[in-house]
Amino acid sequence: MSRVAELAAEYTRVRPRLVGVAYSIVGTLAEAQDVVSDCWLKLADADARERVLDVEAWAVVAVARRAVDVLRSARVRREEYVGPWLPEPLVDPGSPDPAERVTLDDTVSYALMVVLETLTPAERTTWVLHEVFGMSFPEIAAVVGRSPAAVRQLAVRARAHVTAGAPRVDVAAPEHRRVVDAFLGAVEGGDLAALVGLLDPDVVLTSDGGGLLGVARRPVHGPDHVARFVLGVRRKVAADERLVPLAVNGGPGFAVLRADGTTRFVCSITAVGDRVRRVDIVVAPAKLPRAR
Fold first, then answer.
1. Per-residue confidence at 141, pLDDT binned at 50, 70, 90?
2. What angle do CA 133, 139, 145 make, to 5 degrees?
3. What pLDDT, on the 0 to 100 scale, is given for residue 74?
4. Computed from CA positions of residues 70, 263, 86, 269, in that sequence, does the dihedral angle turn out positive or negative?
5. Domain 3-165 classified CATH 1.20.140.160?
6. How far apart, in Å, do the first and last CA atoms of the chain sit?
7. Domains 3-165 and 173-287 share a fold
8. pLDDT band per the 50, 70, 90 thresholds, residue 167
């Protein structure tokens, strides 16, 4: 086997983890996959000059560096985004192709991805690499261009922001699924009272339409307002469209599929205890999965 073939085989093996690193930093799968593809070319070039002994370690650093650059550029574009900007939801692609797989730590819920959007690029990268991927502060310093001491401070600030912003999801998976099933049952039945009863007093609903009409351009707060908004969305679902439960970033959610198999929107539901704390709806076409 040639050296290039060896590199390609090893890069393919670690690709799901690399896409997970990039996705956790940039928040969209397409950009994450582009980052990983770009870094393959850099790896081949670097290895031609001096043999890369640990492909995975080299690639994680290279991917993280590139992802930081992409995130900084994306932040400028997102300032002009119409309405709230939500991360791209990850749903099971149902494909064995490594290019479509992502290895994401089960602690990186969709709600956490939303909170990570409030961090600076350096804070976000530090938190992701240290808390999720277990990298040391000196290693992260090489990625973000700061000293290890400065990176440690970034980690402290990022952890404080995440702790303050992310719901503490201490509910077991079966209980989470039960709450979501009850939520869907109330929605399907058009039961306003039952739906309000399932919502946390601090519930918030955010929808990302990418500028499409008919999508809330500000978050909706409170059980009554959120329940009425959700039931209004349900009434707009056509008779030939179907609601399909699925995992969103590893947690319970659902999608509405059109008759042709394309996705109309994906919804992530975050429960705390026996109540729904967050409802995040992604309608923007560029962030939706392809037809199944």
1. very high
2. 115
3. 87
4. negative
5. yes
6. 36
7. no
8. low
Answer for the pair 260, 291: CB distance below 8 angstroms, yes or no. Answer: yes
pTM of the model: 0.88
> Is the distance from CB of 247 to CB of 234 less than 8 angstroms?
no
240-285: per-residue pLDDT in tens?
Answer: 999 888 889 988 899 999 999 899 999 999 998 889 999 999 999 9
Sequential DSSP letters for the chain: --HHHHHHHHHHHHHHHHHHHHHHHHS-HHHHHHHHHHHHHHHHHHHHHS--S-HHHHHHHHHHHHHHHHHHHHHHHHTT-SS---PPPP-------GGG-----TT--HHHHHHHTTS-HHHHHHHIIIIIT---HHHHHHHHTS-HHHHHHHHHHHHHHHHHHS------HHHHHHHHHHHHHHHHHT-HHHHHHTEEEEEEEEEE-TT-TTS-SS-EESHHHHHHHHHHHHHTS-TT-EEEEEEETTEEEEEEE-TTS-EEEEEEEEEETTEEEEEEEE--GGGSPPP-
173-287 CATH pick, 2.30.29.80, 1.20.1250.20, 3.10.450.50, 3.30.70.270: 3.10.450.50
What average pLDDT is seen over the chain? 89
Determine the Cα–Cα distance for residues 39 and 193; give it in Å rounded to an integer: 52
What CA–CA distance (Å, rounded) separates 42 from 36? Answer: 10
pLDDT digits (tens, 9 = 90+) for 2-19: 888 898 999 999 999 999
What are the boundaries of each domain within the chain?
3-165, 173-287
More confident of the two residues 219 and 290: 219
| Confidence grade of residue 292 (pLDDT, cut at 50, 70, 90) | very low
